[in-house]
Design brief:
alpha/beta, globular, three-stranded parallel β-sheet
Protein backbone atom coordinates (compact mmCIF):
# COMPACT_ATOMS: atom_id res chain seq x y z
CA UNK A 1 0.00 0.00 0.00
CA UNK A 2 2.84 2.37 0.79
CA UNK A 3 4.25 1.92 -2.71
CA UNK A 4 0.92 2.75 -4.32
CA UNK A 5 0.68 6.02 -2.36
CA UNK A 6 4.37 6.94 -2.82
CA UNK A 7 4.47 6.68 -6.60
CA UNK A 8 1.83 9.38 -7.30
CA UNK A 9 3.51 11.62 -4.73
CA UNK A 10 6.91 11.22 -6.41
CA UNK A 11 5.35 11.93 -9.79
CA UNK A 12 3.73 15.09 -8.41
CA UNK A 13 7.02 16.29 -6.89
CA UNK A 14 8.84 15.62 -10.18
CA UNK A 15 6.19 17.57 -12.10
CA UNK A 16 6.47 20.49 -9.68
CA UNK A 17 10.25 20.47 -10.11
CA UNK A 18 9.93 20.57 -13.89
CA UNK A 19 7.46 23.46 -13.66
CA UNK A 20 9.76 25.32 -11.27
CA UNK A 21 12.81 24.88 -13.53
CA UNK A 22 10.76 25.85 -16.58
CA UNK A 23 9.50 29.01 -14.86
CA UNK A 24 13.02 29.87 -13.80
CA UNK A 25 14.32 29.37 -17.34
CA UNK A 26 11.50 31.53 -18.72
CA UNK A 27 12.57 34.32 -16.37
CA UNK A 28 16.26 34.19 -17.35
CA UNK A 29 15.97 36.43 -20.46
CA UNK A 30 13.90 38.95 -18.51
CA UNK A 31 16.41 39.05 -15.64
CA UNK A 32 19.29 39.38 -18.09
CA UNK A 33 17.65 42.35 -19.79
CA UNK A 34 16.82 43.97 -16.44
CA UNK A 35 20.38 43.52 -15.17
CA UNK A 36 21.82 44.90 -18.42
CA UNK A 37 19.64 48.03 -18.14
CA UNK A 38 20.60 48.59 -14.50
CA UNK A 39 24.29 48.04 -15.20
CA UNK A 40 24.29 50.40 -18.19
CA UNK A 41 22.61 53.19 -16.21
CA UNK A 42 24.65 52.81 -13.03
CA UNK A 43 27.88 54.73 -12.55
CA UNK A 44 30.28 51.84 -11.97
CA UNK A 45 33.60 52.30 -10.17
CA UNK A 46 36.15 49.65 -9.16
CA UNK A 47 37.98 50.97 -6.10
CA UNK A 48 41.13 48.89 -6.53
CA UNK A 49 43.10 47.24 -9.29
CA UNK A 50 46.83 46.78 -9.90
CA UNK A 51 46.86 47.35 -13.64
CA UNK A 52 49.67 49.98 -13.48
CA UNK A 53 52.10 47.13 -12.77
CA UNK A 54 51.71 46.29 -16.47
CA UNK A 55 52.62 49.84 -17.45
CA UNK A 56 56.30 49.21 -16.65
CA UNK A 57 56.39 46.84 -19.62
CA UNK A 58 57.08 49.11 -22.59
CA UNK A 59 55.49 46.55 -24.95
CA UNK A 60 52.16 46.69 -23.11
CA UNK A 61 49.29 48.54 -24.81
CA UNK A 62 46.41 49.55 -22.52
CA UNK A 63 44.18 50.11 -25.56
CA UNK A 64 44.61 46.50 -26.72
CA UNK A 65 42.09 43.77 -25.89
CA UNK A 66 44.00 41.17 -23.83
CA UNK A 67 41.17 38.67 -23.33
CA UNK A 68 42.29 35.16 -24.18
CA UNK A 69 45.95 36.13 -24.39
CA UNK A 70 48.85 34.91 -22.26
CA UNK A 71 50.16 36.29 -20.07
CA UNK A 72 46.85 38.03 -19.58
CA UNK A 73 45.93 41.12 -17.67
CA UNK A 74 42.46 41.79 -16.36
CA UNK A 75 41.81 45.47 -17.10
CA UNK A 76 42.27 47.34 -20.35
CA UNK A 77 40.23 49.92 -22.23
CA UNK A 78 38.30 47.41 -24.40
CA UNK A 79 37.55 45.34 -21.30
CA UNK A 80 36.30 48.37 -19.38
CA UNK A 81 34.06 49.31 -22.30
CA UNK A 82 32.74 45.77 -22.74
CA UNK A 83 32.06 45.40 -19.01
CA UNK A 84 30.47 48.81 -18.58
CA UNK A 85 33.14 49.92 -16.09
CA UNK A 86 33.00 53.71 -15.93
CA UNK A 87 35.94 54.28 -13.61
CA UNK A 88 38.61 52.62 -11.52
CA UNK A 89 41.20 53.37 -8.88
CA UNK A 90 44.59 52.37 -10.25
CA UNK A 91 46.94 51.29 -7.48
CA UNK A 92 50.46 52.63 -7.27
CA UNK A 93 51.72 49.48 -5.57
CA UNK A 94 55.10 49.16 -3.87
CA UNK A 95 55.95 45.88 -2.16
CA UNK A 96 57.42 46.12 1.32
CA UNK A 97 61.21 46.18 1.42
CA UNK A 98 63.91 47.19 3.87
CA UNK A 99 62.92 50.05 6.17
CA UNK A 100 66.15 51.97 6.03
CA UNK A 101 67.33 55.03 4.13
CA UNK A 102 68.23 53.06 1.02
CA UNK A 103 65.03 51.00 1.04
CA UNK A 104 62.82 54.04 1.61
CA UNK A 105 64.52 55.92 -1.23
CA UNK A 106 64.06 52.97 -3.57
CA UNK A 107 60.36 52.66 -2.65
CA UNK A 108 59.82 56.39 -3.18
CA UNK A 109 61.48 56.23 -6.60
CA UNK A 110 59.39 53.21 -7.62
CA UNK A 111 56.17 54.95 -6.60
CA UNK A 112 57.06 58.12 -8.52
CA UNK A 113 57.88 56.05 -11.60
CA UNK A 114 54.49 54.32 -11.41
CA UNK A 115 52.67 57.64 -11.07
CA UNK A 116 54.58 58.72 -14.17
CA UNK A 117 53.59 55.56 -16.04
CA UNK A 118 49.91 56.21 -15.26
CA UNK A 119 50.28 59.80 -16.46
CA UNK A 120 51.88 58.61 -19.72
CA UNK A 121 48.98 56.25 -20.38
CA UNK A 122 46.45 58.96 -19.61
CA UNK A 123 48.07 61.17 -22.24
CA UNK A 124 48.54 58.34 -24.73
CA UNK A 125 44.86 57.33 -24.54
CA UNK A 126 43.29 60.72 -23.77
CA UNK A 127 40.48 60.02 -26.22
CA UNK A 128 39.33 57.06 -24.10
CA UNK A 129 40.36 57.74 -20.49
CA UNK A 130 40.72 60.78 -18.29
CA UNK A 131 42.31 61.58 -14.92
CA UNK A 132 39.83 61.86 -12.03
CA UNK A 133 40.71 63.59 -8.77
CA UNK A 134 37.43 64.36 -7.01
CA UNK A 135 34.11 62.62 -6.43
CA UNK A 136 32.31 64.73 -9.01
CA UNK A 137 34.78 63.92 -11.78
CA UNK A 138 33.48 60.40 -12.44
CA UNK A 139 30.05 61.46 -13.66
CA UNK A 140 31.50 64.31 -15.73
CA UNK A 141 33.99 61.99 -17.42
CA UNK A 142 31.26 59.40 -18.04
CA UNK A 143 29.24 62.07 -19.88
CA UNK A 144 32.29 62.66 -22.05
CA UNK A 145 32.08 58.95 -22.95
CA UNK A 146 35.46 58.25 -21.36
CA UNK A 147 36.63 56.11 -18.43
CA UNK A 148 37.62 57.83 -15.19
CA UNK A 149 41.03 56.90 -13.78
CA UNK A 150 41.55 57.59 -10.07
CA UNK A 151 44.74 56.69 -8.21
CA UNK A 152 45.40 55.09 -4.83
CA UNK A 153 48.78 54.43 -3.21
CA UNK A 154 48.88 50.82 -2.04
CA UNK A 155 51.30 50.64 0.89
CA UNK A 156 52.46 53.75 2.73
CA UNK A 157 56.04 52.47 2.57
CA UNK A 158 57.12 55.06 -0.08
CA UNK A 159 56.36 57.81 2.46
CA UNK A 160 59.50 56.72 4.28
CA UNK A 161 59.65 58.71 7.50
CA UNK A 162 58.54 61.99 5.93
CA UNK A 163 54.86 62.96 6.45
CA UNK A 164 55.42 65.69 3.86
CA UNK A 165 55.38 62.99 1.20
CA UNK A 166 51.65 62.56 1.81
CA UNK A 167 51.09 65.94 0.19
CA UNK A 168 53.54 65.13 -2.59
CA UNK A 169 51.63 61.98 -3.53
CA UNK A 170 48.33 63.83 -3.19
CA UNK A 171 49.66 66.30 -5.73
CA UNK A 172 50.47 63.42 -8.08
CA UNK A 173 46.85 62.30 -7.87
CA UNK A 174 46.58 59.80 -5.01
CA UNK A 175 43.21 59.94 -3.31
CA UNK A 176 43.74 57.15 -0.80
CA UNK A 177 46.67 55.45 0.85
CA UNK A 178 46.48 51.79 1.86
CA UNK A 179 48.41 52.22 5.10
CA UNK A 180 50.47 49.02 4.69
CA UNK A 181 50.64 45.83 2.65
CA UNK A 182 51.48 42.24 3.64
CA UNK A 183 54.28 43.24 6.03
CA UNK A 184 54.61 45.88 8.73
CA UNK A 185 55.93 49.31 7.78
CA UNK A 186 56.66 52.44 9.81
CA UNK A 187 52.97 53.44 9.77
CA UNK A 188 51.26 50.36 11.20
CA UNK A 189 51.10 46.61 11.63
CA UNK A 190 49.94 44.40 8.79
CA UNK A 191 47.21 41.78 9.13
CA UNK A 192 49.68 39.17 7.89
CA UNK A 193 52.72 40.05 9.99
CA UNK A 194 53.70 40.00 13.66
CA UNK A 195 52.77 42.71 16.17
CA UNK A 196 55.29 45.54 16.15
CA UNK A 197 53.52 48.83 16.79
CA UNK A 198 50.42 47.35 18.43
CA UNK A 199 48.35 49.04 15.74
CA UNK A 200 49.20 52.42 14.23
CA UNK A 201 52.53 53.96 15.20
CA UNK A 202 53.12 57.53 16.35
CA UNK A 203 54.38 58.33 12.86
CA UNK A 204 51.26 56.67 11.44
CA UNK A 205 49.08 58.99 13.53
CA UNK A 206 50.77 61.94 11.84
CA UNK A 207 50.19 60.35 8.43
CA UNK A 208 46.46 59.86 9.11
CA UNK A 209 46.10 63.46 10.28
CA UNK A 210 47.85 64.71 7.15
CA UNK A 211 45.63 62.57 4.94
CA UNK A 212 42.55 64.03 6.63
CA UNK A 213 43.85 67.57 6.13
CA UNK A 214 44.47 67.02 2.44
CA UNK A 215 41.29 65.08 1.66
CA UNK A 216 42.70 61.58 1.13
CA UNK A 217 40.71 58.51 2.12
CA UNK A 218 42.31 56.31 4.79
CA UNK A 219 42.43 52.76 3.40
CA UNK A 220 42.33 50.00 6.04
CA UNK A 221 42.67 46.98 3.74
CA UNK A 222 45.71 44.86 4.67
CA UNK A 223 46.18 46.42 8.12
CA UNK A 224 45.93 44.51 11.42
CA UNK A 225 42.72 44.39 13.46
CA UNK A 226 44.21 46.70 16.11
CA UNK A 227 45.40 49.12 13.42
CA UNK A 228 41.90 49.02 11.92
CA UNK A 229 40.33 50.22 15.16
CA UNK A 230 43.11 52.79 15.59
CA UNK A 231 42.35 54.16 12.11
CA UNK A 232 38.67 54.54 12.93
CA UNK A 233 39.56 56.29 16.20
CA UNK A 234 42.14 58.60 14.66
CA UNK A 235 40.58 59.55 11.34
CA UNK A 236 38.31 62.58 11.26
CA UNK A 237 36.61 61.17 8.18
CA UNK A 238 35.11 57.74 7.41
CA UNK A 239 37.61 55.09 6.34
CA UNK A 240 37.58 52.77 3.34
CA UNK A 241 38.59 49.14 2.97
CA UNK A 242 39.39 49.39 -0.74
CA UNK A 243 39.56 45.62 -1.38
CA UNK A 244 38.45 43.33 1.46
CA UNK A 245 35.85 40.64 2.18
CA UNK A 246 33.83 39.24 5.11
CA UNK A 247 35.84 37.05 7.49
CA UNK A 248 32.68 35.20 8.57
CA UNK A 249 32.52 33.62 5.11
CA UNK A 250 36.26 33.24 4.50
CA UNK A 251 38.46 33.09 7.57
CA UNK A 252 41.41 35.08 6.26
CA UNK A 253 43.15 37.78 8.34
CA UNK A 254 42.88 40.11 5.34
CA UNK A 255 39.09 40.12 5.75
CA UNK A 256 36.94 42.03 8.25
CA UNK A 257 35.02 40.20 10.98
CA UNK A 258 31.45 41.13 11.90
CA UNK A 259 32.49 43.43 14.77
CA UNK A 260 34.76 45.30 12.37
CA UNK A 261 31.99 45.54 9.77
CA UNK A 262 29.66 47.05 12.37
CA UNK A 263 32.38 49.47 13.52
CA UNK A 264 32.97 50.46 9.91
CA UNK A 265 29.27 51.19 9.48
CA UNK A 266 29.15 53.29 12.65
CA UNK A 267 32.17 55.18 11.31
CA UNK A 268 30.34 55.86 8.04
CA UNK A 269 32.94 53.90 6.12
CA UNK A 270 32.70 51.50 3.20
CA UNK A 271 34.10 48.02 2.53
CA UNK A 272 34.74 47.46 -1.17
CA UNK A 273 34.14 43.79 -1.91
CA UNK A 274 37.30 42.11 -3.23
CA UNK A 275 37.00 39.30 -5.78
CA UNK A 276 40.42 37.73 -5.23
CA UNK A 277 39.37 34.10 -4.92
CA UNK A 278 41.45 33.25 -1.83
CA UNK A 279 39.70 36.01 0.13
CA UNK A 280 36.26 35.00 -1.12
CA UNK A 281 36.47 31.28 -0.41
CA UNK A 282 39.09 29.21 1.38
CA UNK A 283 41.02 27.55 -1.46
CA UNK A 284 41.34 23.82 -1.88
CA UNK A 285 44.84 22.47 -1.15
CA UNK A 286 47.14 22.79 -4.17
CA UNK A 287 50.66 21.96 -2.91
CA UNK A 288 52.29 21.82 -6.34
CA UNK A 289 51.01 25.29 -7.16
CA UNK A 290 52.09 26.60 -3.75
CA UNK A 291 55.56 25.11 -4.18
CA UNK A 292 55.95 26.61 -7.65
CA UNK A 293 54.96 30.05 -6.43
CA UNK A 294 57.28 29.80 -3.42
CA UNK A 295 60.17 28.84 -5.69
CA UNK A 296 59.45 31.79 -7.96
CA UNK A 297 59.41 34.20 -5.02
CA UNK A 298 62.78 32.85 -3.94
CA UNK A 299 64.17 33.08 -7.46
CA UNK A 300 63.17 36.73 -7.79
CA UNK A 301 64.03 37.90 -4.27
CA UNK A 302 60.40 38.26 -3.23
CA UNK A 303 59.92 40.43 -6.36
CA UNK A 304 61.94 43.23 -4.73
CA UNK A 305 64.64 45.37 -6.32
CA UNK A 306 64.05 43.99 -9.83
CA UNK A 307 64.88 45.72 -13.09
CA UNK A 308 62.08 46.32 -15.59
CA UNK A 309 63.28 43.35 -17.63
CA UNK A 310 63.44 41.08 -14.56
CA UNK A 311 59.97 42.16 -13.39
CA UNK A 312 58.44 41.50 -16.81
CA UNK A 313 60.04 38.05 -16.89
CA UNK A 314 58.90 37.26 -13.35
CA UNK A 315 55.36 38.33 -14.17
CA UNK A 316 55.20 36.00 -17.18
CA UNK A 317 56.52 33.08 -15.15
CA UNK A 318 54.02 33.79 -12.36
CA UNK A 319 51.06 33.72 -14.73
CA UNK A 320 52.42 30.58 -16.38
CA UNK A 321 51.94 28.82 -13.03
CA UNK A 322 48.20 29.59 -13.31
CA UNK A 323 48.12 27.61 -16.56
CA UNK A 324 50.25 24.72 -15.31
CA UNK A 325 48.59 24.38 -11.90
CA UNK A 326 45.15 26.02 -12.23
CA UNK A 327 43.31 26.99 -9.06
CA UNK A 328 39.68 26.12 -8.45
CA UNK A 329 38.20 29.58 -8.17
CA UNK A 330 35.37 31.02 -6.13
CA UNK A 331 32.32 32.08 -8.16
CA UNK A 332 30.25 35.20 -8.72
CA UNK A 333 27.65 33.58 -6.48
CA UNK A 334 30.26 33.35 -3.70
CA UNK A 335 31.03 37.03 -4.19
CA UNK A 336 27.34 37.87 -3.85
CA UNK A 337 27.19 35.78 -0.66
CA UNK A 338 29.76 38.16 0.85
CA UNK A 339 27.79 41.18 -0.32
CA UNK A 340 24.64 39.70 1.23
CA UNK A 341 26.48 39.18 4.52
CA UNK A 342 27.97 42.66 4.55
CA UNK A 343 24.59 44.22 3.79
CA UNK A 344 23.00 42.21 6.60
CA UNK A 345 25.75 43.11 9.07
CA UNK A 346 26.77 46.66 8.12
CA UNK A 347 23.96 47.91 5.88
CA UNK A 348 23.48 48.62 2.18
CA UNK A 349 25.23 52.00 2.44
CA UNK A 350 28.55 50.48 3.48
CA UNK A 351 29.52 48.12 0.68
CA UNK A 352 31.04 48.55 -2.77
CA UNK A 353 33.27 46.75 -5.30
CA UNK A 354 37.09 46.69 -5.29
CA UNK A 355 38.13 43.82 -7.55
CA UNK A 356 41.91 43.63 -7.04
CA UNK A 357 42.17 42.78 -10.75
CA UNK A 358 45.78 42.40 -11.89
CA UNK A 359 46.73 41.89 -8.25
CA UNK A 360 45.23 38.40 -8.13
CA UNK A 361 41.54 39.30 -8.44
CA UNK A 362 39.21 37.23 -10.57
CA UNK A 363 36.58 34.55 -9.95
CA UNK A 364 34.65 32.11 -12.11
CA UNK A 365 32.14 34.20 -14.01
CA UNK A 366 34.06 37.43 -13.50
CA UNK A 367 37.60 36.86 -14.70
CA UNK A 368 38.25 40.39 -15.97
CA UNK A 369 36.68 43.82 -16.39
CA UNK A 370 34.59 42.72 -19.37
CA UNK A 371 32.54 40.40 -17.12
CA UNK A 372 31.68 42.83 -14.33
CA UNK A 373 28.07 42.90 -15.46
CA UNK A 374 27.74 39.35 -14.10
CA UNK A 375 27.98 40.72 -10.57
CA UNK A 376 25.05 43.02 -11.30
CA UNK A 377 23.14 40.10 -12.81
CA UNK A 378 23.66 37.97 -9.70
CA UNK A 379 22.49 40.83 -7.47
CA UNK A 380 19.36 41.26 -9.62
CA UNK A 381 18.65 37.54 -9.31
CA UNK A 382 18.86 37.93 -5.53
CA UNK A 383 16.31 40.72 -5.48
CA UNK A 384 18.51 43.81 -5.17
CA UNK A 385 16.82 46.92 -6.54
CA UNK A 386 18.33 49.30 -9.08
CA UNK A 387 18.82 51.88 -6.28
CA UNK A 388 20.66 49.37 -4.10
CA UNK A 389 22.88 48.29 -6.98
CA UNK A 390 23.76 51.93 -7.76
CA UNK A 391 24.78 52.36 -4.11
CA UNK A 392 27.04 49.32 -4.34
CA UNK A 393 28.62 50.27 -7.65
CA UNK A 394 29.63 53.83 -6.77
CA UNK A 395 27.28 55.92 -4.67
CA UNK A 396 28.59 54.64 -1.32
CA UNK A 397 32.19 55.18 -2.38
CA UNK A 398 31.54 58.65 -3.81
CA UNK A 399 29.65 59.66 -0.67
CA UNK A 400 32.73 58.77 1.38
CA UNK A 401 34.95 60.73 -1.01
CA UNK A 402 32.73 63.79 -0.73
CA UNK A 403 32.85 63.65 3.06
CA UNK A 404 36.63 63.43 2.89
CA UNK A 405 36.81 66.36 0.50
CA UNK A 406 34.40 68.38 2.63
CA UNK A 407 36.55 67.92 5.74
CA UNK A 408 39.62 69.08 3.80
CA UNK A 409 37.80 72.22 2.62
CA UNK A 410 36.95 73.05 6.22
CA UNK A 411 40.61 72.88 7.22
CA UNK A 412 42.19 76.25 7.77
CA UNK A 413 44.93 75.53 5.23
CA UNK A 414 45.03 73.13 2.32
CA UNK A 415 48.37 72.63 0.63
CA UNK A 416 49.61 75.91 2.08
CA UNK A 417 46.71 77.88 0.60
CA UNK A 418 43.85 79.09 2.77
CA UNK A 419 40.58 77.52 1.63
CA UNK A 420 38.12 78.70 4.30
Amino acid sequence: MKVKHTQPLLMLLALMLVISVSARNDREPELNRKAARIHARALTIDSHNDTPMWFTDTSYNFAEDHRGKRPRNRVDIPGMEAGGLDGAFFAVFVGQGDRDEKGNARAFEQAVQTFGAIERNLKLHRDKISAARFAGDARRIEKEKKRAIYIGLENGYPLGNDPGNVELFYGLGARYITLCHTRNNDICDSSTDSTEHNGISEFGETVVAEMNRLGMMVDVSHISDKAFYDAIRLSKTPVIASHSCARALCDNPRNLDDAMLRALAENGGVIQMCILSNYVKTPDPNPRRDSAQAALRLKYNGFRDLTEEEMNKARKEWYAIDDIYPQKLATVSDVADHIDHIVKTAGIRHVGIGTDFDGGGGVEGCADASELGNITLELVKRGYSARQIRLIWSKNLLRLMRETEKYARKSAYHGGVKTT
